[in-house]
Each structure stands twice: as C-alpha cells, then as structure tokens.
C-alpha cells in the first residue's frame, strides 16, 4: 500500500529582532509517495457497462461516476446530478444518497471540500501511472491520510 514518506522537515522560526518575540513558526516538509508497487489490474472501460448492469445500486452509482470523473476531476454530488444518475441507474435519487455515503465511508470517493469530491486514485484512475501517483500523493497529503 502506498504511503507518504518524509525526506526532510525544516523548521523556520521568525523572531522580532528588537523584542526577541517569536512571530511565526513553520515546518516545511518534503515528502514522496513510497512503496507504490501495488497490485494492478488492467480494466477496460467496457467493465463499466458490467458494473452499470449490476443490481447493486452502489455499483451502478460507482460506474456512472467512473464514466464521468475517473481522470481525477473534482465533482459535486448535487441534486441535478443525482437526478441524471438516478434515471440512468433506474433508481430513486434517495437510493443514491445512501450509496454515495457508502462509497465515501469506504474511501472509494474522497471528500476534498464542502460538497466537493474525487474518485480515490488508489482504486481507479484514468491516465498515466505518473499522473495517478501525483493524484494519489495529493489525496494522501491534503485530504485523506488513511486512504
């Protein structure tokens, strides 16, 4: 499982010359994605069709989100998007609320802001391995240290 490893941590202290008072302290950390040799499966986009045909609403929702956001784009699960996906999945928007909560709880979808989300690149990412590693490093550093 990939994790962040700190190379260096430099502590900076700004002191008022006249009073000796500490004005500010910062720590600058440089880290990298370590142990990134994870199991990898090549999955063709046609797999999304299989997920969408599932009877499980969690899988149907995940497939719909994959079609739209698998390349690392942020999204908001607002009412209009729920209506569109509910129609595609042939379920109620309320069913999607429960499924979306499940996907967030399981860190398959990562909350990155107020009503703003990303698909966790640890599990699914459309793009190069380097792009995926940059996205994963960002998620681990900024939003979900345990993802």
Characterise the protein shown here.
The protein is an alpha+beta fold. Helix content is 39%, strand content 24%. The chain contains five helices and four strands. It has helices spanning 47-52, 57-69, 79-89, 93-105, 129-142, and strands at residues 3-15, 22-34, 109-113, 116-119. A two-stranded antiparallel sheet has the order 1-2. Strand 3 (109-113) and strand 4 (116-119) form a beta hairpin. Helix 2 crosses helix 3, helix 2 (57-69) packs across helix 4 and helix 3 crosses helix 4. The longest helix is centred in the C-terminal third of the chain and has 14 residues, at 129-142. It is elongated. The chain starts with a strand and ends in a 5-residue tail after the last helix.
Q: What characterizes the major β-sheet? A: 2 strands, antiparallel
Query: How many helical stretches?
Result: 5
Q: How would you sum up the global shape?
A: elongated
Instruction: Assign a percent range to the helix content.
Output: 25-40%
Mean pLDDT: 85
| Structural classification | alpha+beta
Q: Report the uncertain regions.
A: none
What percent of residues are in strands? 15-25%
The tally of strands reads: 4
Give the strand order, joined by hyphens, for the main sheet: 1-2
- Rg result: 20 Å
Distance between the ends: 9 Å
Pattern of helices and strands: EEHHHHEEH
Layout of helices and strands:
Blueprint: E1 3-15, E2 22-34, H1 47-52, H2 57-69, H3 79-89, H4 93-105, E3 109-113, E4 116-119, H5 129-142
Antiparallel strand pairs: 1-2, 3-4
Helix pairs in contact: 2-3, 2-4, 3-4
């Amino acid at each position: 499982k990939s994790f962040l490893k700190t190379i260096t941590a430099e502590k900076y202290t700004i002191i008022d010359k006249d009073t000796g008072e500490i004005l500010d302290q910062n720590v600058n950390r440089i880290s990298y994605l370590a142990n990134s040799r994870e199991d990898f499966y090549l999955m063709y986009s046609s797999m999304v069709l299989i997920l969408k045909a599932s009877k499980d609403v969690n899988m149907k929702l995940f497939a719909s989100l994959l079609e739209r956001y698998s390349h690392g784009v942020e999204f908001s699960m607002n009412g209009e998007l729920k209506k569109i996906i509910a129609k595609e999945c042939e379920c109620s928007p309320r069913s999607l609320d429960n499924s979306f909560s499940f996907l967030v709880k399981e860190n398959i979808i990562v909350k990155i802001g107020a009503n703003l989300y990303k698909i966790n690149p640890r599990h699914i990412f459309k793009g190069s391995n380097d792009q995926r590693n940059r996205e994963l490093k960002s998620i681990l550093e900024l939003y979900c240290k345990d993802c």
